[in-house]
């Protein structure tokens, strides 16, 4: 007789270590609250499946992956974890976040992932070109902040992020070259193409213009405010790329470009997670200086 899988409690600190130590695509993070709660705040990369919908949507979760459920305080996600356990659909380990998002302090974001900025996408190449546009937008954002201040700590952070965004854009370009099917000719060299891009929409789907008042206010305030801005940009990017990976694979989404395209966006999400950790380390340094 098969032994019933035990639901494991996981603390916020343990979950941070879990997420940092796992490759993207090897686990699922599931928010079981209502959509309006998710829009206000959610953990980056989390898939929204409200508790009432869980039984009919468990098939959206890869059966062999570990799954972490969370809600506001841990009660609804405890119920969700038991539903998943009893279903027999999930073969991986099942976790419930102790204290829910209320206890979480590892970075969270608001609003739904802005997949609407990818409207009209027909091919994986189109998807990657849009991703490259977003990398250019982040590059422009950080370059604009860098040019607007002479404070050493901000300049150091922005110089780092400018380099990170260009390097990440080159990774996207490498993938784009694999899917390039534009009938107008060969794919331009990276430097030429990157220079041509307008870069208005950031990686997380935010518009650069939307952030101008925030940038001006942050430049007049503390270093920590700009670090927070950069962190939100990168966490939104991570959130969006995780979502696009599901869409690219055709899981609960629109595209269905296949496993290779899914792996590309999981890799891009992994790099965004690294960028966020880099900024968090700088935030810690800013805090120590302020103290």
UniProtKB/TrEMBL annotation:
Keywords: Transferase. Gene3D superfamilies: 1.20.1260.10, Rhodanese-like domain. InterPro entries: Ferritin-like (IPR012347), Ferritin-like_SF (IPR009078), GlpE_sulfurtransferase (IPR050229), Rhodanese-like_dom (IPR001763), Rhodanese-like_dom_sf (IPR036873), Thiosulphate_STrfase_CS (IPR001307). Pfam families: Rhodanese. Residues 23-111 form the Rhodanese domain. GO terms for molecular function: thiosulfate-cyanide sulfurtransferase activity. This is Sulfurtransferase. It comes from Desulfovibrio subterraneus.
